[in-house]
Backbone:
């Protein structure tokens, strides 16, 4: 061959891939929450240092805006070593999380998000302990006696966490869906959510665009849980 | 005229060894490409962030359609290769068959690249199920094998079986990758935009 066209093809594809990779990295939001470094969750001492140093500089519009707006983020993804998934929504210092494997293993958790640490509890001994920054949350979760570790990235609607409750013949139904970025849904439904240790089954498929799911003759309407907008908190 | 006695020509170096050497370095480079992709996918924390192309229902469907189109062009690859090698009875290779083969290959490769970038960046190298583990491994192997083919194509003196074997390997990898992703996606969510 006069010109090495196969090499040109290979290098073109490689350059194309690198350009797309850089574009993806630029498109990935990395808002630095007030008081926390973007790289790693900081201790309380360094968080206080960052907060006290920003008013010293001439106040810019963004500095004032971020000082007043609570940190909000949504994370979702698979846990390590299982089909199960976890979704976490942080709104200020409040955090809601849901873990489920699409059938019987599931737990709703609530807790606090302070200094880059999440501490959450739920019914039936559910616990979540994790660290987070503006790009991911990683840690441990115990649900229905099973221990998972996870490291999940931020997601944006329509991906993320959805919750529906309904009163059916005196029993409260509570369902949760985690919609992953590739469109996969992982959802479970508790048929008696007020019980001390509610049991769960697979949730019916969620129509994300309509915000409804059909459970027998009941139409469940979901609330999107979003730490960014505060919906569901 | 009488034949002049000629000096014996020194035998060329062992031809089998030099032929094999031509494959070794491209294979090593291909293996390095595959390893690099796998390591990046494993070490980089998947963002879950997806770039959505307007008109499709989800990033998963964008990738599934791109991957399916790449697979169709790969079928054109195999068909044109069979014609070029005279394996299709009663079909003589037309003059444009080589061009068809090269361009269908380029298009398939370039369609696979954005799918792979999204996969590595947003989802990462995963092993939580057999399907994703096979997909992650074969996805890396595919680009390694494709690198090998591009690097050995200009080389002369290779045994005749090398190119068809590498081409067949690439095709088999792409089909398996398509089965563990696009086929699964369409089976699970339905064939939709």
Residues:
């Amino acid at each position: 061959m006069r010109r090495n066209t196969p090499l040109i093809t290979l290098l073109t594809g490689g350059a194309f891939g690198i350009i797309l990779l850089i574009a993806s990295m630029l498109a990935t939001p990395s808002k630095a929450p007030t008081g926390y470094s973007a790289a790693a969750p900081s201790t309380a001492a360094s968080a206080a240092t960052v907060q006290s140093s920003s008013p010293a500089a001439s106040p810019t519009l963004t500095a004032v805006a971020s000082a007043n707006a609570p940190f909000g983020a949504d994370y979702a993804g698979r846990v390590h070593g299982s089909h199960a998934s976890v979704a976490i929504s942080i709104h200020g210092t409040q955090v809601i999380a849901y873990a489920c494997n699409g059938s019987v293993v599931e737990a709703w958790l609530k807790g606090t998000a302070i200094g880059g640490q999440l501490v959450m509890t739920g019914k039936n001994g559910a616990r979540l302990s994790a660290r987070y920054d503006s790009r991911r949350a990683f840690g441990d979760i115990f649900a229905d006696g099973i221990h998972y570790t996870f490291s999940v990235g931020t997601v944006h609607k329509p991906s993320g966490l959805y919750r529906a409750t309904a009163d059916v013949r005196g029993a409260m139904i509570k369902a949760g869906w985690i919609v992953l970025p590739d469109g996969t849904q992982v959802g479970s439904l508790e048929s008696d959510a007020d019980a001390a240790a509610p049991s769960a089954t697979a949730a019916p498929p969620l129509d994300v665009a309509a915000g409804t799911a059909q459970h027998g003759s009941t139409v469940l309407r979901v609330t999107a849980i979003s730490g960014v907008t505060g919906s569901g908190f | 005229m009488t034949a002049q006695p000629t000096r014996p020509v020194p035998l060329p170096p062992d031809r089998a060894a030099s032929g094999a050497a031509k494959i070794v370095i491209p294979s090593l480079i291909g293996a390095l490409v595959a390893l690099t992709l796998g390591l990046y996918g494993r070490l980089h924390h998947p963002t879950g962030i997806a770039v959505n192309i307007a008109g499709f229902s989800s990033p998963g469907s964008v990738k599934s359609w791109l991957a399916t189109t790449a697979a169709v062009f790969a079928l054109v690859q195999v068909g044109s290769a069979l014609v070029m090698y005279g394996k299709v009875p009663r079909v003589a290779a037309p003059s444009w068959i080589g061009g068809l083969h090269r361009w269908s290959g380029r298009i398939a490769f370039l369609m696979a690249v954005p799918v792979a970038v999204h996969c590595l960046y947003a989802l990462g190298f995963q092993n939580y199920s057999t399907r994703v583990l096979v997909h992650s491994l074969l996805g890396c192997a595919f680009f390694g094998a494709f690198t090998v083919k591009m690097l050995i194509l200009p080389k002369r003196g290779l045994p005749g079986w090398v190119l068809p074997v590498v081409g067949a390997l690439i095709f088999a990898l792409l089909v398996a990758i398509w089965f563990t992703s696009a086929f699964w996606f369409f089976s699970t969510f339905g064939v939709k935009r």
About this structure: Chain B has a mean pLDDT of 84. The interface with chain A takes residues 45-51, 57-61, 102, 105-106, 109-110, 113-114, 116-118, 120-123, 126-129, 146-147, 149-151, 153-154, 185, 188-189 of chain B (CB under 8 Å). Residues 15-43 of chain B form the longest helix (29 residues). The CA atoms of residues 41 and 120 of chain B lie 5 Å apart.
